[in-house]
Amino acid sequence: MSTLNFRTATRDDIPALLTLVTAAYRGEESRAGWTSEADLIEGARLDAAALEADLARPRSSILLAERDDQLVACAHVADDHGTGYFGMFSVDPNQQGGGVGKLVLAEAEVFAAREWGVSVMQMTVIDVREELIAFYERRGYVRTGITKPFPYGEERFGIPQRDDLRFEVLEKTLASTEQHPEPNDATTLAPEGVTQ
C-alpha cells in the first residue's frame, strides 16, 4: 500500500474537496462508508463559499491527504482563539476502515500544535452519532458536555431529517509543541496499518 502525502489546500482544490466531503457524508455514495449522515441530514454538507472562507481566514488550513496523487481525505484545522479546531473531517467512503482517518487526525493534531502552538484541540460532533464519538474517544478525545444547537432552517448546512439534532464539543490535550518536527512542504507517512 502506498504512503499518504499531506499538503495544505489551495483554491484550485475546492471542486475536489466538495466532491470528497459530499461523498463522505451525504447521499447514496456515503453509505459505502461508516461516516454517512444520509439518514440524519439531506442536501449539501458545505459549499464553495464556505471553503473559500476557510482558506482565506488567518490561522486556518485545510489539510489534504493524497495517495498516488488522488485525494483520499481532508480536514479543516484552525486556531480558534488559542484553541485548535478540527472539522470537515472526510475520508473517501471506499478508503474508510483502513486506517486513513487515524493518520489524518494525528497529522491534524501535529499541524495545529506546530503551526499555532495550541495545546488543546476541539471539535463538534452531532451527539446522536455514538459510533463516531467512540472513534474519537479511542483517539483521546473526551466529551465535554458542552452542546451547541444545530442550525435548523439554514439549508446551506443541509436539511435535517429529525428534530433532536445538536452538536457536542469533544476535546483533547495535545502533546507539547517541542515534540513536533519542523514543517516540510509535504509530509509522507508510513503505509496504512502502522499503529499510531
Descriptive report:
The chain is an alpha+beta fold and 196 residues long. It has 5 helices and 10 strands. Strand 5 (83-91), helix 4 (100-116) and strand 6 form a beta-alpha-beta unit. Residues 179-196 have low confidence and may be disordered.
The 3D shape can be described as globular
Strand order of the largest sheet: 7-9-6-5-4-3-1-10
Largest sheet: 8 strands, mixed
Task: For the record, give the distance between the C-alpha atoms at the N and C termini, rounded to a whole number.
Answer: 17 Å
Helix and strand run: EHHEHEEEHEHEEEE
DSSP helix fraction: 25-40%
Average of pLDDT: 83
| Strand residue content | 25-35%
Number of strands: 10
Based on CA atoms alone, the radius of gyration comes out at 16 Å
- Extract low-pLDDT stretches: 179-196
Count of discrete alpha- or pi-helical segments spanning 4 or more residues: 5
Based on secondary structure, the structural category is alpha+beta
